[in-house]
Specification:
The protein has 440 residues and is an alpha/beta fold. It is globular and about 65 Å long. Strand 2, helix 2 and strand 3 form a beta-alpha-beta unit. Helix 5 crosses helix 6. It is 36% helix and 19% strand. The mean pLDDT is 95.
């Protein structure tokens, strides 16, 4: 059974709409409590959106009505919430955020007692237990500081004073990391030039953050900084740019981290976990260095699940989610940035040099808005085109066709040995999709 409300990263939508509102948040909290079915504390964090406090109160009302003890962490990055759930022995964690979406949106995502995001089956179970309504469950929420312990743990990634003499540009997206990432980097000795560090409840991700790195890159060039770092609104994502102001793709970051760990014998099981979105060049670079790549569906929780299954500790998405599971149970933008700096410190090389470890295969993508997400196996023409392209490309490329988990879109991706091959292949995929789906 497919999930009705949960997408690839929790429940998300416009605040005040049919899904993200106080009534539904309370129902979701009650259903989550029913699914847990044992007493205990639930830690609730949120980003800086103006709607966050009201949704926090609502989900807490549902959790309390369901027999759990909600505790407020206030404005706290997602990785800090995940860490606190695990270290405090809570039965559940909730983050109220819409990640990189604009301030008008909000959402809720849940973490289990291990600090990892819930599985598909656990989310289905919550949906099955949704009540029609939740009554009043008054009472002020107790509070807990998760930011202090998180800053201490993240700061321990590098030796004391490791960044002395470094000038960095840091864009915190007017989001949840405004009080954590700058403090950690400055405590390590860095000179931090801030962007997106004045949240007002309405400006989260507004022209800043991981989705809008142009200002970050320009400031790096203007100030002569050694690198730039940008987070998304809830801090589980990291985008970096080199000293030339050139933004690195997520695959470049994952490849330089993976190959560096391989060279030092620290890549556990010699395995890097990525999603199906990552370029085949990642596989080639890891193989050349003596490692291997394992691929998952899109979503950092699937990366986390694969890390546990494979006994590996490093993985991530090309979008900027990077998981070091021995440090954090979920994507952590600050830890990812610190680990990139660790490679720079160890090698003495600038990012503009380190990024060259990845040689991308030519790639083309398209996203077609569709009226209905018909099962792909019910589209014989599209299936036949995919199979023909896969046969033609063999080991020199790949084809990926999937529906978006958050939008009414069919996403097409093809990689191959040359630009002409992928351009032709994408045109054939688009034609086949348009012939069998109502597009537009």
């Amino acid at each position: 059974m497919n999930r009705q409300y949960f997408g690839t990263d929790g429940v998300r939508g416009p605040y005040g709409g049919p899904l993200i509102n106080e009534s539904f948040a309370a129902r979701l909290g009650y259903a989550a409590a029913a699914a847990v079915a044992r007493p205990g504390r639930v830690l609730i964090g949120r980003d800086t959106r103006g709607s966050g406090a009201a949704l926090e109160a609502a989900v807490a009302r549902g959790l309390r009505a369901g027999g759990l003890e909600p505790v407020s962490l206030g404005v706290t990055p997602t990785p800090a919430v995940a860490r606190a759930v695990r270290s405090a022995g809570a039965v559940l964690g909730v983050v109220i955020t819409a990640s990189h979406n604009p301030a008008a949106d909000n959402g809720l995502k849940f973490f289990g007692p291990d600090g990892c995001k819930l599985t598909d089956e656990e989310e289905r179970r919550i949906e099955q237990l949704l009540p029609a309504a939740v009554g009043a469950a008054p009472g002020a929420l107790p509070e807990l500081d998760a930011g202090g312990p998180y800053r201490a743990a993240a700061g321990a990634v590098l030796p004391a004073g490791a960044l002395a003499g470094w000038r960095l540009v840091l864009d915190t997206a007017n989001g949840a990391t405004c009080a954590t990432s700058p403090a950690v980097l400055r405590a390590l000795g860095a000179e931090v030039i801030g962007l997106g560090d004045d949240p007002d409840g309405t400006n989260i991700n507004a022209g800043v953050g991981s989705e809008h790195p142009a200002s970050l890159a320009a400031r790096v060039r203007a100030t002569g900084a050694r690198l730039g770092v940008a987070h998304d609104g809830d801090g589980d994502r990291c985008v970096v740019c080199d000293e030339l102001g050139q933004v690195l793709e997520g695959d470049e970051v994952l490849t330089l981290l993976g190959t560096h760990a391989l060279a030092r014998g620290t890549l556990v099981n010699r395995t890097l976990v990525v999603t199906v979105q990552s370029n085949l060049g990642v596989d080639a670079a890891l193989a050349a260095a003596g490692g291997r790549v394992v691929r998952t569906a899109v979503g950092d929780r699937y990366v986390s699940e694969a890390l546990r299954r494979e006994g590996a500790t490093l993985g991530g998405e090309s979008s900027g989610h990077v998981i070091f599971s021995e440090i954090s149970p979920t994507g952590d933008g600050l830890v990812a940035a610190l680990k990139v700096m660790e490679v720079m410190l160890a090698t003495g090389q600038p990012l503009s040099q380190l990024r060259r470890v990845l040689r991308k295969f030519p790639q083309r993508t398209a996203a077609l808005r569709v009226r209905e997400k018909r099962p792909l196996d019910s589209l014989p023409g599209l299936v036949a085109t995919i199979q023909a392209l896969e046969t033609e490309l063999g080991a020199t490329g790949r084809v990926l066709v999937r529906y978006s988990g958050t939008e009414s879109k069919l996403r097409l991706l093809i990689e191959g040995p040359s630009e002409s091959a992928v351009q032709d292949g994408l045109a054939r995929l688009e034609a086949a999709a348009r012939a069998e789906l109502v597009v537009g």
